[in-house]
Write a structure and sequence with these properties.
By secondary structure, the protein is an alpha/beta fold. It folds into 2 domains: 60 residues, no CATH class; 214 residues, Uncharacterised protein PF01937, DUF89, domain 3 (Rossmann fold, 3-Layer(aba) Sandwich), CATH 3.40.50. It is 50% helix and 11% strand. It is built from 13 helices and 7 strands. The chain has a 7-stranded mixed beta sheet with strand order 1-7-6-5-2-3-4, with helices on both faces. Helix 1 runs antiparallel to helix 2, helix 1 runs parallel beside helix 3 and helix 4 packs parallel to helix 8. The chain is globular. It starts with 7 loop residues before the first helix and ends in a 5-residue tail after the last strand. The model has no long low-confidence stretch (mean pLDDT 94).
């Protein structure tokens, strides 16, 4: 998915929020935002939104310091909040008539934990979101195809999105037969917004559950040409990709891999690109014709 005009206000908001979280120095905040707006004014519209998100956080690291992770406290907070309701979500799946579909719905519910879209001062009531998502119809429903492809796939690459959300991903992973042997979970190579990193996978027990790898990138999505060579080999050798969230959709929607996009449409631009309404939930098969 390419950049739309409607993405520009979101870029500006991200720059302001991230600058405020990175430093208390008003002059440095101003410098970060001005530099980000300069980049936004010239970035080609044939790039994806995560290309711009990446540039914002590179500006912050260049200005404030390479080790800065402005969203770390928020990531830790939502990892803990999600782990607190993990047993309740497991029980919902256990009692369900269709555990796999219920697990898909729950993992999509977790996609609300996205501070690239949601403001950082938003109050997110996770179990309310779970219950609402369990009863919401899919706006795009390729679940039947997903279930068939899941049964056939020997090697599955699961592309995580955000911290906190990866606990919801764990719910789905644990419903896939032989997940320890079949699934590799991919996280970001460097801190970027509240995207999940290896540290988040460790915090939430996922490194003890499945093989976890880093994609080698600092973009809030999966820009394949900027990922590590090892990661690109993993993508090419996978029978099935499970892609979580908007950033991964934005960067992979025009590829031809056997990929399924699981997400909640949280902004008008994404909703318009998908042909759905804001707030809709989606399980969508990509462009693969093999």
């Amino acid at each position: 998915m390419k950049i739309y005009l409607g993405c520009i206000p979101c870029f500006a908001r991200q720059a302001v929020e991230a600058a405020e979280m990175a430093t208390n120095d008003h002059k440095i905040r101003e410098k970060i935002v001005r530099e980000a707006l300069k980049v936004a004014s010239v970035i080609p519209f044939d790039k994806t939104p995560p290309h711009m998100g990446k540039e914002i956080h590179r500006i912050i690291r260049k200005t404030v310091g390479n080790n800065i992770d402005p969203y770390k406290s928020l990531k830790d907070k939502y990892n803990k909040k999600a782990m607190k309701i993990y047993p309740e979500m497991k029980e919902i799946v256990k009692k369900s008539k269709n555990p796999l579909e219920t697990a898909v719905r729950i993992t999509i519910a977790g996609n609300i934990i996205d501070f690239g879209i949601t403001t950082t001062d938003s109050i997110i009531h996770l179990m309310d979101i779970v219950n609402e998502t369990l009863n919401r119809p899919f706006a795009i429903n390729h679940f039947a195809s997903f279930e068939k492809d899941l049964q056939k796939a020997k090697k599955i690459l699961y592309l995580a999105d955000n911290a906190g959300e990866i606990v919801f991903d764990r719910i789905l992973i644990e419903e896939i037969p032989d997940y320890k042997e079949r699934i590799t979970l991919a996280v970001k190579g460097h801190p970027i917004i509240n995207d999940a990193t290896l540290e988040d996978a460790k915090q939430t027990g996922l490194t003890q559950l499945v093989r976890v790898i880093e994609n080698g990138s600092d973009a809030p999505g999966t820009i394949l040409e900027e990922c590590s060579e090892d990661f690109r080999k993993e993508v090419k050798s996978a029978d099935l990709l499970i892609s979580k969230g908007q950033g991964n959709y934005e960067t992979l929607s025009e590829t031809s891999y056997n990929v399924y996009f699981l997400l909640k449409a949280k902004c008008p631009v994404i909703a318009g690109d998908l042909g759905v309404n804001v707030g809709d939930i989606v399980i969508k098969k990509g462009n693969y014709n093999g």
